[in-house]
Amino acid sequence: MVIIFYLVAALAILAALNVILQRTPVYSALSLIVVLCALAVVYLLLDAQFMAVIQVIVYAGAIMVLFVLVIMLLNAGREEPVDRSRLARWLGVPLIVALLAEMLFVIWRQFPPASTTSAVGVDGGPSAIGHLLFESYVLPFEVTSILILVAVVGAVVLAKKQV
Amino acid sequence: MATFFDTHFSLLATLVKIPVVLVVLLTVVAYAVWLERKVVARIQSRWGPYLVGPHGLLQPVADGLKIFFKEDFFVAEADRFVYLLAPFLTLSIALLPIAVIPFGESFTFRGHTVNLQIANPDVGLLFIFAVTSLGVYGIVLAGWSSNSKYPLFGGLRSSAQMISYELSLGMAIIGVLMLSGTLSLHGIVDQQRGFWKLDGLPAFLPHWNVFVQPVGFLVYIISAVAETNRLPFDLPEGESEIVAGFHTEYTSFKFASFYIGEYTNMVTVSCLATLLFFGGWLGPSFGPVPVRVLLSVFWFGLKVLSFLFVYIWIRGTIPRFRYDQLMSFGWKFLVPLSLLNILVTGLVVTWQNA
Question: What is the pLDDT of residues B199-210, one digit of tens each?
């Protein structure tokens, strides 16, 4: 199990790096799909079967298809590096380091290495998630769905031809 | 030796099951092509393949050899990596869902339960949907990487079509899920055991979901045809408009991968229709355990074959849709219909439980 985790985590990190470093947009999108699928395997290792499957269906199967479609429609070739601003050149690396340190600090405080918190044993099946979603968190769930509906209507209004 | 056998039983059983299932699947796929050519020929008053073997039964072998000896052609301006990746992706994604499809009654062998299924996850059905939702990439990437106009059109068409019909495909089966209350394919079939009890009539109607979910079944079968890019929904390769669509620039074994992938997808959706709506491997059975198990596999195979036949029948009968017709049919008819089906089923289930 641990070996699988390290393999998949390494794959996810390498693919995520490739998303940024790649100059061809289609390769970036493909690498992002690899990242999402690798994360799904991590969910599986945490016994969250439902989350793993939904991750693949929604992100890798639907949203990324849209990304790839847009890239193809624009027929985007290789990206040419533009002149980066001097500010970004000098502040970029320190800011990344600061962000990483911040994230590590939060994770460290939440899960100290001494206490091995694990999600194993928690039921990650669809019925458990369904109970949580439609009993404890029903209001946030419904509010989110209305939010998405508003966004969809907004997109249609913006994209519609003026009559 | 007995201890090794006992402790590693499930591993050993799986190692036996994988090659058997794979060989059977690929044989079925090869002969599905033969069946298609024969049935379509009969519909069009022709003979179909007749020269290689009796009734052309060895035609799949001849086709395979022919495709294998074709020149493996590369398009000069293609994106080589993605161009190679696309057929590989199509084939491997098409083969994956078979791993969770149960094809027969479970039985005990020397004290161990044997499921006639390679793996039985709790979310088996969702696993199939997750894997098949990735299937569109093979077609889209093939269309893009060929660096040619018609394949690009095919890729664009397929991505829009497959996202649209995946929606109604997924919603069509929610009625079944509400009735069975499980996502395990084994569980869904077990729920369909027995007969429907009708007042004043002998029990003759099998307890299959199709009799309570006719609308769901209809939406499922239509969406499944569109998901597998078969006629009358084969717009991504419509040869009268865009040459051969996404696989215009493919030859040899790379082309064969798309071909095998398409027919494997056909088998998969037929298996799923059998499991969800037609009671899977359930059917008249009698005699000792081995006979019962064989009979269950036989019934499953028979039902899947009937669905393959219906597929081919549809192909031979209905002409291709126009692209705008396809999209409006999916979004303005199938999606609302499946939503209505969910609503009605939900109301009935709640009313019965109250």
Answer: 777 777 787 888
Prediction pTM value: 0.83
Interface test with A, best of B88, B100, B126, B129 (most A CBs within 10 A): B126
Look-up of token digits 């071909």: B259
pLDDT tens figures, B53-111: 788 888 888 888 888 888 877 777 777 788 888 888 888 998 888 888 888 887 777 77
Judged by CB atoms closer than 8 Å, whether chains meet at A125 and B131 is answered as no
Instruction: Look at domain A2-124 and name its CATH class.
Output: mainly alpha
CA distance A111 to A104: 10
Average pLDDT score, chain B? 84
Helix and strand counts by DSSP (H, E) for chain A:
7, 0
Residues 150-169 of B with CB under 8 A from A: 152, 155-156, 159-160, 162-163, 166
Asked if B29 contacts B267 with a C-beta cutoff of 8 angstroms, the reply is: yes
User: What residues in chain A have per-residue pLDDT under 70?
Assistant: 76-79, 81-84, 112-122, 162-163
Angle of helix A64-74 relative to helix A25-45, nearest 10 degrees? 170
Burial of A157 (0-12, 13-18, 19+ CB in 10 A): exposed
Q: Does A70 touch chain B (CB under 8 A)?
A: no
CA distance A61 to B137: 9
Judge if ipTM > 0.85.
no
pLDDT for the residue numbered A122 = 63
Give chain A's radius of gyration (CA, Å).
20
The domain limits of chain A are 2-124, 125-163
Q: What is the pLDDT of residue A163?
A: 59
Per-domain boundaries in chain B: 63-353
Could you give the 3-state DSSP secondary structure of residue B181?
A: coil
Across the interface, of A53, A65, A66, the residue whose CB is closest to B130 is: A53
Asked if A54 reaches chain B (Cβ–Cβ under 8 Å), the answer is yes
Q: What is the 3-state secondary structure (H, E, C) of A14-65?
A: HHHHHHHHCCCHHHHHHHHHHHHHHHHHHHHHCCCHHHHHHHHHHHHHHHHH
Nearest chain B residue to A40 by CA: give it: B130
Other beta carbons less than 10 A from residue A78's beta carbon: 10
3-state secondary structure of B195: strand
Which residues on chain A are in Cβ contact (under 8 Å) with B162?
65
